[in-house]
Predict the 3D structure of the following.
Amino acid sequence: MCDDIEVVRVFAKGRNCLLAHASIAQVFACFSEIRLSQKEHSIAQHRTSVRAKDEYSASRLLSKYLAMLLFGGQSTDWQVTHSDQKLPQLENCQNNIMGALSISHTHGYVAVAMCAGDLPIGVDVEKVKKRKDPRDLLVSLCYAHELAWYDAEPSLIRFYQLWTAKEAILKSHKLSIWEAMNPITELSFSEEKFNTCDSDLNLSHFQSKNADIIGAWAFAQ
């Protein structure tokens, strides 16, 4: 396996939860011995672009790696399928759903969060790039005090910190950011650290080494 990919481990409600994030090139280089299942390979081949195929494949390789760390076994014991709601889920070779899984990818980068129990978990990762009227995108997602925090020092970094936090939280509730018509789970800020007002949910941000990628993951506490 590859020492270049950092794995963050937290202990939540008696269960281990893991986060790993890396460039897609890094995932392919590190896990060349891991293979997609026949079904996963077929789905990857039907992706409409090279980028979509690579994102799909890398996220599955990284998921299999975390599954081996969390549950044991070989890479061939695990595959990522989708629920009826089209959410990613981890299955063992007996087709049993194991734990909880969240996947995100953006512009050559992938992040996977996984928990050993059926606990809320969500991850989002975004490339920092210029956006037109970023504040307008936050209005439907944020409470007044969160917008005030952004307005105090408007920047792309603050935009993406809020965006990834909100999307990770929504995904932990099995929702997408486009389904959020109203703000969900208030945030509080302490010396740039984000906290949720949901007593059952924790939140943490992460970045790529060159800081052009910002992500957040939400997990049970």
In short: The two ends are 29 Å apart (CA to CA).
